[in-house]
Structures are given as structure tokens and as C-alpha cells.
Amino acid sequence: MLAPSQREHIDNVLAVSQTGAAASDPIHSSWVRCVRDYGLDPCRPTRAHIVEHAQLREHKDQIEEFLGVARTGMEQLYKRMAGIGYVLLLTDAHGIAVDFIGNDAWARELKQSGLYLGADWSEVRAGTCAVGTCIVEKAPITVHHTDHFDATHISLTCNAAPLFDPTGGFLGVLDVSALTSPSPRESQHLALQMVTMYAQMVEDANFLRYFRDRWVLRLGSAWSMVDVAGEIMLAFDGDGVIVGTNSGARRALRPLRNGPGADTLIGRPLSDVFREGMDAIWRIARAGASADRSALSTGSGEVYFGTVQAPRVTPQRIMPSTADTPCAPALERLAGDDPQMQRLISQASRLVNRPVNILVHGETGTGKEVLAKALHESSSRSSKPFVAVNCAAIPESLIESELFGYTAGTFTGGRSKGMRGLIQQSDGGTLFLDEIGDMPLHLQTRLLRVLAEREVLPLGAEKPVPVRLTVVAASHRDLRKLIAEGRFREDLYYRLCGAILYLPPLRERLDRDYLIERLLAAESAELDSRARLDQAAHAALLSYDWPGNVRQLRNVLRFALAVCDGTTINIEDLPAELMTRIEPSPVPDASAPIARTHDEASVLQAALRRQRWNVTAVAAELGICRATVYRQMKRYGIVPPNQA
Ligand SMILES: Nc1ncnc2c1ncn2[C@@H]1O[C@H](COP(=O)(O)OP(=O)(O)OP(=O)(O)O)[C@@H](O)[C@H]1O
């Protein structure tokens, strides 16, 4: 039963989402997103969603090291905020609360409201809220009472600040929330300042931990405060080259000279940023904590006071030098300007030389093998073999001998000298196990033993052979689900997932243009063609939702190059499926475009009516993405009844 205040709120949300919002208003823009992009219905308030334990574990595993650092900051912040009724949430980049500090006395109310461990505060799930909207805006935000989209949340007040990793990737959100609060929005001003300040402190603590083997230059505009609150931090190596920047540095500093790459500081010498040059910085380092604190000035005329912290551990033992390279070239080539891919690449570049196995998740055709290969090529193992095995493609009866090898005379008909298995062949290099979820259970047990004991026992052999094995495993299936069904060993899962990388589906990537260009160049070179895409074909490629991901894009380009006139690829050269995703089967006569348009419009209209104008449900029914539904609605002038 809805309270009058909730009903009034729903009417308000409906009115704004129908008329649209000013781009500068993050709350109303979020309401519009909730209705138009996520298909959320303000008339159906929904309780908080708490993810299951196993899923929460996975989210925590992703940022385990960071969680330890963040906890200290959270405890300090909680001490200051608990007395005035606030609780604290730390969420990952997906909006899942991976840590929480609150008062046990209100545990029931807090859990019901979603102020709890495991709560999903993404905008897609919870509507406008401090965490979810902060993830979209990447900036601190207060979402107070009726700023929330969902009427169940309108008694809450929430303040959130984003957290970035030392390479600028988005890590998650720090949030302070209260079950009750005074009605003026201004009452939250201080809470927002506090959460923003602590988010910065947590980020900086993480930065110092991450770059503990590097020199760190801390800068502040107040002479006496630099040691305690250096707003700007730059990590640099013994040659004075910048290897890391905190958020403050990324906001405030630019290289002295313009030119290519002027937007990034990583990889540049410090003398490219400060007029006084490297000598002055080494002088500051030598002065240590003494009062001799030279000022450094930037190209824009700002003056900062600096202090330099020496490396606290010896570099190379922690991480071989290439692992610190902000982006290894083989990895960098995988993507253009897509935030999800850029984050993945920065995570991957930090992993290349670490002694961990990596699990890659992604839909079929997203490039899991390509990523595994790039990881290998970027590592110090690159001169050793990269061995790829598709566990789903090799018949079960052969996987064992293929992987583990066999000795002479083990099989009648086998090679008389025996065979080194693929595990041995990858010794010192990388073993890529694709579709690991399809590996039979008894072989999972043997693989686990190889990983634990670092030796392999070929079939028929008496003595094990030592191997230096680094595994990158991939799966498009949910391994946690397979574990729950008893089809995948949990202990093997934990051995394999030293780190998990999620490859986004192509429809979510914003760098499709880059991929189209790269793949077209690669395919053209192979076919010795110089054909270019015309505008309509290019637009069709950009707007398609690519269920088969990068592989399908590659195949489509190959097809188009083969059938085009040799100079221009136009829309007719693209395979029919790009034009017919929305049509009912059987496919109508392709020579009748008017009939096809008419069919498309009526199919869409019927589905919209059937699904009561819920765009998400329509997209699911027709097997297309929501953006395509909106595009088609616009094209055919279909307007929801309440907006007509
Ligand atoms: N980033 C990329 N740049 C260029 N080509 C790519 C990229 N990602 C994938 N591809 C191409 O897409 C195709 C599929 O890639 P890949 O085999 O790595 O996908 P996958 O996710 O391992 O697929 P599956 O799940 O079917 O094993 C390949 O032809 C590959 O060359």
C-alpha cells in the first residue's frame, strides 16, 4: 500500500520522465534514463536486491587488496558519522556493496532498505540513487529523499563519492547513508564533503600501497600541509619518468608543452611538467623532512610545495619492470576509447608478470583468446610457447592424452616414441584453456594436481616431469553455477582465478568505430582489397547489436569485402541479418523494402502493446537491444500512449 507522499513522488517522476530533463540536472537525467534506457517503472516500487553469498564473494575477490586499504578509511569515517545516524557502504564498480559498516541495533531496517552488505545499488536495478548515479556521473553526489527514483527509497538520504585506481580506472563508490534525516537537502552538505574527502584519502592510501616500490612526489598549495595532505601525487621511477598519478594530479597537471599525448602524464619525465626540472625534484628528495621545501611551478603558473617519498621496498622483486608499464602494446591494441575495455587493459597490464592464473569471462566471440594471447605477448614469457586448447572441441577421450601426454608404448597405435602433452609444451609460457567449463571432472582433478604440485605425470609414466605453468582459462559459462551443480571443482576454480577479467560484449563497447577500422584493415590486407565503407554501411555496422560479438563483425566485414565492387562497401553488401534482426521469421521478400518497413513497424508496435510499453521486455521478446527498440520507435514515429 503506497503512502500519499509516495504516490505524489511517482507522479512527479512520471511527469519528468515524459517531458525530459535538462542535461545539467543529474537527478532528473537519471530519472529519464531509468524509464527510457532501463525500462524501470516508477509505479512499481521494488525492495532492495541483495545478491547471494557466492556472488558477493566473487565481487569481493575482484578488489580484495583494495578492500583492506578501504576498510581502514571506512572505520575512521564511521567514527565521525555514526553518532549522527549514518552508515557506510563501499561498492564495487557494478554497484554491489562489498563492505558495510552500520549499527547492529537497526540491522533489520537497514537490510530492508538495502543499506547492507551485498545490496545491488546499480541504477539499472535500484533506479536513481547515490551509488548508481555516482557510477554514471563519476562525480560526488547527494541523492536525498525524493531525489530517489524508487518510491521505497524516498525516506533515505545518501551521499556518494567515486573511487579510482592508481591508473585512473573506476574502482567503486564510497557512500554514507541514513535512514532518516531533516528534509532540507542542504542538511547533507557536510556529509557529502566528508565522504568526498575520505574517498580521496582511501584512493591515496591505495596509490601509496600500489607504488610502494617507486618514488612519490606529493604536492600541495599550502606549505605546512604537504606532508599530511599532499593533494597531488605523482609516482616516478629512478629516471624521473612518471609511472602513476592520483586523481588530484590528473585534474590539476598538464605537460608544459602541447602536442600528441598531451592529455596524459604517464610515461613523461617530470621535467615535462615542472619548469624547475628534475634537479629541483632530486633536491627536494635529498632534503627529506627538513624545512627546505622548494616550490615547483607548472605551465599554467600554479605554484606547489613538494615533498618526495623514497621507495619503501626494492622495486624489481615485487614486480618485474614490464608489469609496471602502464599499457603493454599488445594489450593496448585490443581496444579504442571504451571505458570498460580501457579498465580491463589497465588491470591486465598490471597482471602480466604476476605469478597468478587468470580467468577470462565473456560471451562467445568477444576475444577471450585474443586477450590471452596479448597477455602472453606482453609478458616476460613472450619468447616461450603460447599453447591454446579448446576443451569443448577435443573429444573427451583425447583430452587426457592431449593435455598430459603419454609415454612410448602406452597406446597401441599411438606414436611409438610417446608424446609430450600440451601442458609440457607450454612449459615456461602460457597455457590457454578455452571453454574450461567443458573439461570432464576427472581431468579437472588431474589439472588441479598439476597446478598445485607444478609437475605433470604423462600417461604411462612413472616419474612426474616438472613444469612452469601459467594458465589463462576462459569460459562463456557461469562457472559458479557449474560449481553449484557439481560439474566444476570449486578448488580448481580458486586455483584458476588469481584474477578475473570480464570482456564486455561488443554491443556494450563504445569503440566499435576503432574495431571496424582495425578489422577492415586486417581483412583488406588479407584479401588485397582497398574498398572503403560508405556512410550508410558504416552507420549500419555501428548500430547493429552484434550477438556474435567481434567474431561476427570480422565475418561480416570479410563477407562485405568479398561481395562488394572492390572500391566501396555499401549497405547492400552487408549480410541480410544486419537488416532483418527485427523482422518476424520467415524473412520477407528482401526485394520489397516498403513491405519490410511496414512489417517492422507493425511487429514492433504489437510487441510494445503486448509488453505494455516496457522496452526491456520488448527487447527481450524480439531478441534485440533496448537501444535498437528506441531507434526503431523513433524511425517509425511510435510514441507511448502517455507521451502522445
Ligand atoms: N580486440 C580485438 N581486435 C581484433 N580482433 C579481435 C579482437 N577481439 C576478437 N577479435 C577477433 O574476433 C574473433 C573471435 O575472437 P576469439 O576467438 O578470441 O573469441 P573468444 O571469445 O575466444 O570466442 P569463443 O568463446 O568462441 O572461444 C577472432 O577472429 C579474433 O581475431
TrEMBL record:
InterPro entries: AAA+_ATPase, AAA_lid_NorR, GAF-like_dom_sf, Homeodomain-like_sf, HTH_Fis, P-loop_NTPase, Sigma_54_int, Sigma_54_int_dom_ATP-bd_1. The keyword Glycoprotein does not apply. Keywords: ATP-binding, DNA-binding, Nucleotide-binding, Transcription, Transcription regulation. SUPFAM superfamilies: GAF domain-like (SSF55781), Homeodomain-like (SSF46689), P-loop containing nucleoside triphosphate hydrolases (SSF52540). The keyword Secreted does not apply. It holds the Pfam family Sigma54_activat. GO terms for biological process: regulation of DNA-templated transcription. GO terms for molecular function: ATP binding; sequence-specific DNA binding. Residues 334-562 form the Sigma-54 factor interaction domain. PANTHER family: TRANSCRIPTIONAL REGULATORY PROTEIN. This is Sigma-54-dependent Fis family transcriptional regulator. It comes from Parazoarcus communis SWub3 = DSM 12120.
